[in-house]
Amino acid sequence: MPVLPVTDRQEFLSRPRAQLAKGPIAILFVEDGVAVTETVAHHVARGFRHILIMSELQISLPPDLAARVTQLRHDSRRPDAHVEGVNAVIAAVPAGTWLYYCFNAEFLFHPFGESRSVGEMLAFHTEERRGAMLTYVIDLYAGDLGRFPDAVDLDNPMFDRTGYYALGRKGPDGHPRDRQLDFHGGLRWRYEELLPPDRRRIDRIALFRAEAGLRITADHRFNLEEYNTYSCPWHHNLTATIASFRVAKALATNPGSRDQVGDMVWRNSHPFGWNSQQLMDLGLMEPGQWF
């Protein structure tokens, strides 16, 4: 497989590019070599027009996938690396462009995604006067850490089918923010003592429209409060899910946690089916008015 050429991020984003002219565009932060090809292939199949890989690693992809990808030099392994990368793309694309961001070994699912593209869904979401979409990050993990010491098993992953909850989100004045909640569950809940408090939420505004002055923050929220809401005031809106091995991988491999994790499987573990219907059936994403 050919190695992707690495382009200077600032130089690439400083001038108009055909790859950035129209969305939806995916931004993929590659932190290590785990499941990179699978992550790219999944999001190409979902219908993203182009994928910007942010990484300094040497990445090889099959030619058919490489044609849909541009790799930009970016240190994706430092803390909060998504902030600078996402904000740079927001500033470079036309206003109104739909963007999405994730990390390697993360996979986007949206309602009825097996028959409808992400572009079709976002066109509908735009008609509902929404500029962003809430996504829940659902942890995937291997059922046997002896066979998969990095906790990544793409063929037979497990996830938690219960144990998710939401808490009201308060503003600086101590009052609840309108249509905003902090969501919890999965491995971040079961192993919360191994994670800092600001890393325990599972909500992420991963799909959003670029807008002048828009900025993402380290906690995966935006400086425009309406972008952080789960729905509009008059009815429920679409939500999506990111099935992610990222937390499992970190817990299983980081020196500070790997000896305390043991077996990630518990009584509420369930095989992950790699389809949107399963996630909707369990209430882990909302179809809203999307028929």
Task: Please supply descriptive tags for the structure shown above.
two-stranded antiparallel ribbon, 9 helices, 291 residues, 25% strand, eleven-stranded mixed sheet
Task: Describe what this molecule looks like in 3D.
The chain has 291 residues and is of the alpha/beta class. The chain is built from nine helices and 13 strands. The strands form two sheets. Strands 1, 2, 3, 4, 5, 6, 7, 8, 11, 12 and 13 form an eleven-stranded mixed sheet that branches. A hairpin with a 5-residue loop joins strand 9 and strand 10. The N and C termini lie far apart (40 Å). The mean pLDDT is 94.
Short description:
This protein is α/β, with parallel strands linked by helices. The chain is 22% helix and 25% strand.
Distance between the termini: 40 Å
Mean of all residue-level pLDDT scores: 94
Query: Based on helices, strands and strand pairing, what is the structural class?
Result: alpha/beta
Count the beta strands.
13
Give the number of helices: 9
Radius of gyration: 18 Å
Beta-strand proportion: 25-35%
Shape descriptor: globular
The run of helices and strands is: EHEHEHEHEEHEEEEHEEHHEH
What characterizes the major β-sheet?
Answer: 11 strands, mixed
Given as residue ranges, the uncertain stretches (5+ residues, pLDDT < 50) are none
Helix content: 10-25%
Itemize the secondary structure elements and their pairings.
Layout: E1 6-8, H1 9-13, E2 25-29, H2 36-46, E3 50-54, H3 63-66, E4 69-73, H4 81-92, E5 98-103, E6 106-109, H5 118-127, E7 132-142, E8 157-160, E9 165-170, E10 176-184, H6 186-190, E11 203-209, E12 240-244, H7 246-253, H8 258-261, E13 269-271, H9 276-281
Parallel strand pairs: 1-4, 2-3, 2-5, 3-4, 7-12
Antiparallel strand pairs: 5-11, 6-12, 7-8, 7-11, 8-13, 9-10
